[in-house]
Amino acid sequence: MSFRPLFAIFCVFLTSVVSAQTRKWTSTSGTSVVATLVSQTADSVSLQISGRPPIVVPIDKLIEADRKHAQSLWFDQQDQQQYQQVVEHLRSIGERPKTVERLMIEMHNAIPESPYAGLWAAVALSHGSNEHVRASVILKSVVQRIEKQREIDPERHRMTLASANNNLAVCLIKSKRGDSAAAKLVEAIESCPQVPAVVRSNAHLLNEATSGLSPVVFSPNGRTKLLRALATANSPGSGTEMQGLHYSLDFDLPESFNGAQKISGIDSPRSDLMLLAQGTGFVVAPGLVLTSRQVVETTNYNGPKLLTIVTNPSASTWRSELVESVKIHGVKRYATSATIASYNSGSTAYFTNYVYIPLASGHSDAELAALVVPNLNVSPLEIAKSSPVSGSDLQIVGYGRGKDAITSGLQVERGVVVGNSTTSVSSLSPLTSSFGNSRVMQTTARVMGGNRGAPITDKDNNVVGIAFDTPAGGTNAAGWFFGASELRRWFYKNVQTASILDPDPQKSPAERDAALRSATIPVFCWGLRGPSSQQVFSRLTDSSRLNGSVYIRDGWCVACDGTGFFDCPNKLCNKGAVAGRASRQLGTTVDGTPIRGSTVTREVCPTCRGRGIEPCPHCKGGRL
């Protein structure tokens, strides 16, 4: 069917009113028509002109701009369809892991344009049953799908592509193909404006060639290319080096979901988690966020906890990040978090690692917490060298509480410094009853639940302290805080990997205010709702998370390929046996003299003692 005659017939019926679903479509022959796209396939679009039946037009008959627009809509539709299917079935992966794994592979094959099912199916195969060769095949097709979408729009699936290449690199390392793995890690590095922590960690691990990776073939040329990519890439934040190879499940949401994700509320990063506490923190050094201890410790919860922060909260595309670890004082009295918790299904889920710093007997310290956040691309604030004096004006710049905490933006509480700053911490809350007489200050500005841990500034927007907590009893002060002197003392005593910035006298109050709003971020503390048997994919199943860092450690030994054994190192050994020689009488001569000779015999290998294999020295039963 010719495109030009159809357009010529219907052009006379066009009106000047174009609806939101209507646009001008132009054919390769140059004719145009205003029509609504009512349906489409991978190869054609169905266009509806007012008052006329829909017409089906092959995509290759459209000009490039319209063709790309139609293909982009088609990819959005396919991504949305597959994403919804995947999320629905991920909810039951803990109860039916193998069934869901097969379903994901079927979804991957059924919708050949979308990468979601293949990305997660491959991780399930390689992480769960060590089928890394099969996973590699699936991941290669995932990369091809993403590259096809990026031909239409280079911004599509940036994060998904980085995850796919990273995971493919892990599978190739497990296949002992170091150069191929390095090439994929380079592609993962180059596909993102900032190097994800998991990609950087895997690249460093491959470069270092630890004992567990020693069988991997890795040429000097491949190593050079990998190191060059790491050196020239944008890798902000101090981060925390991970142990072992990790898969990434970071992904870009389908376009149709983006608007729904810009919600006013705060959603759990995993469906098995509930919100325990929320507060405010601020960046004091690369990759480090300072907040009140009250935000990350609670007296009524004893399980593992996951901490998250939100960067760029004032923008329309704010981002949630996982907190790798937190440093606080004390003993494991209330929080018992660990980096990894084992679940009944045998899988793992990640929590924030709590590092407790013991106090010397008779001493006290500020009730602060330092959060380690990999890839935190936020400039630190400058901190005053001394605390404010009594009667000084100040303001607490932090977030509120509840469902609109982020969308309401930063809230300012104004007040003055009260008293002589010698109040005992022991009177403030049950959590701190054993910590003696740390120096805290009082203010008439209110310290509410959401702004605990917020920076406190003077009239020129210099950071002069950090909000701590609310008084337990009646007092003329509305809040407690630690001054800049106490903040600095705590930081330099307990955080020995970074330094605090001194104030720059050349900066104006407006410049300091802009920096303050950029570096002040919400902090959330999550705990388990109850006993859970969900798998690692539970982080994704609530369909409410923003793009954030989700990664899974591979627990299989690379050296023995997860078998737990090596072939016998004796090259003469064949399934536990070696050839030997034995002398025996072959016959006699005419005069009766024995004729002796040697024959080949089957002997037990002295190296493996007849087993044909040796236990792998790097693992136990193939698992690290």
From TrEMBL:
Residues 1-20 form the signal peptide. The keyword Signal applies. This is Trypsin. SUPFAM superfamilies: Trypsin-like serine proteases. Transmembrane segments: none annotated. Gene3D superfamilies: SLA1 homology domain 1, Trypsin-like serine proteases. Pfam families: Trypsin_2. The keyword Signal applies.
